[in-house]
Design goal:
Number of strands of chain A: 7
Order of helices and strands of chain A: EHEEEEEEH
Radius of gyration of chain A: 17 Å
Shape of chain A: globular
Number of helices of chain B: 1
Largest interface: A-B, 17 and 23 residues
Number of helices of chain A: 2
Oligomer: heterodimer
Structural class of chain B: mainly beta
Radius of gyration of chain B: 18 Å
Shape of chain B: globular
Chain lengths: 179, 325
Amino acid sequence: MKLLWVILTAVIAIPFSANAANAPSQQKVIREVVIKAEPAKVWAVVKDFGGIHKWHPAVESTSTETKADQDGVQLPHRLLTLKGGGTILEKQTINSDEEMKLEYKIVEGVLPVSGYRAVMTVKAGPAAGESTVTWTGRFYNKANDVHPKSGEDNETAVKAVEGVYDAGLPNLKKVIEAQ
Amino acid sequence: MLNRLQIKRLSVLLGNLFLSAHLQVFAAPFAYVTNQGDHTVSVVDLASHKVSATVPVGKAPVGVAIDPLSNRAYITNVESRSVSVLDMAQNKVIHEIQLGKIAPVGVVLNKSGGQLFVADWFHDQILVIETDTYKTLTTISMGKAPAGMVLSREGASLYVANRDSNEVGVIDARTHQVINKIAVGKHPFGMTLSGDGKLLYVVNVESNSVSVIDVRRDVVTTTIPVGEHPYCVTSNADGSRLYVSNTHEDTVSVIDGKTQKVIQTINVGGTPEGIAFDNKHQRVYVASWMDNALTVIDAKTNKVVDTIKTGAQSRAFGQFIGAAQ
């Protein structure tokens, strides 16, 4: 059997602002997984904004609702209830079949970040009949501060997001490939 | 009497005249892309779209200014608090100007190339550095958190976006006196002169807009809504098109210079930051912080035609395209 493989790429921002400038520096996390399925099939799962509990092992349930965000724009929102407690409220800002791109932002929740924006994309390849899912996150530390207290710093924020992606993508692969 | 730099400039100028008159030979333009995450500058050949060199500079490089006459690119290093002087002919750093406690971001040259203006957004001031001696001649007190800077076309005025005081400061480039302050939107950051030199376009990061300033009168004539969290703006050669990078929606807004309206929005690489226009090939280059790349837009079709891999966290803040002589 051909070896199934997972590409993991972590790119972590250097916290240059921490000692130099007067604004906290943005952080980023990028993760990829190759799934043995056609892009259309993978995208159907990824684009289901209210269905993340079907593949993310840390999410117990999801409830969805379309409502006005802080700028008064009507957007789909999802409330994730995590296994072991805690919730995360997110709003969907892009869901493009043409680009196979889902973008959403955290409104509030237990993840120790601020200004969090995530993008999930599905692309064909590398081999025929395979798809590559890329999950990227951009965010600031929870304190959104140059001198955050422990537990609200860049390292904590990056580790938490890495944890979410690393737990989610392998299971997304498993769920789709078992379909 | 001419000093060393002036003699060099004169000979370069004469050489150019000779070349352009008889041979029509020009060096291909290059993009000098600062990679904040791996402390390098990617030198990208804009004819072939290949990275021709990766030059190690100081820590966390962000800003770029190019002096084509002396073949130098000046790179501001936020973390090492210095300016790297890059020789564009050799693609090598020939000097690192240490700035002590200064956190440099924006950087621009005066008209002759003899003075370098460096924005220190930690201490709300502009440093004036002599490029011949690397000595700081003077400092100019500015508004809060000075970021992007632009020199007027004739070189008389230096415009500074004071991010945290929501204004553009105007400095007399010869006397170094602050002569004006122009209120703009919230958090002005990157700016550019229109190709014809008549208008100054300033992005307002928090207002999701661009303020347009008539530089003869130093007044805001209009404010154009753009995408989310705009960062930088560039103009084509005649000022008929402006291009704005919107960091929070991964797009570039195309503004019609005549109607002062956004006529198109183009999807580009993640978190687009520095943006510059290459007149030779009529293309727009945008640094993508998220994707570690340079996105290439054809200015005739407004379509993305290429993506060039650079280094970690590309910023390219400032006028980062120039031709080595």
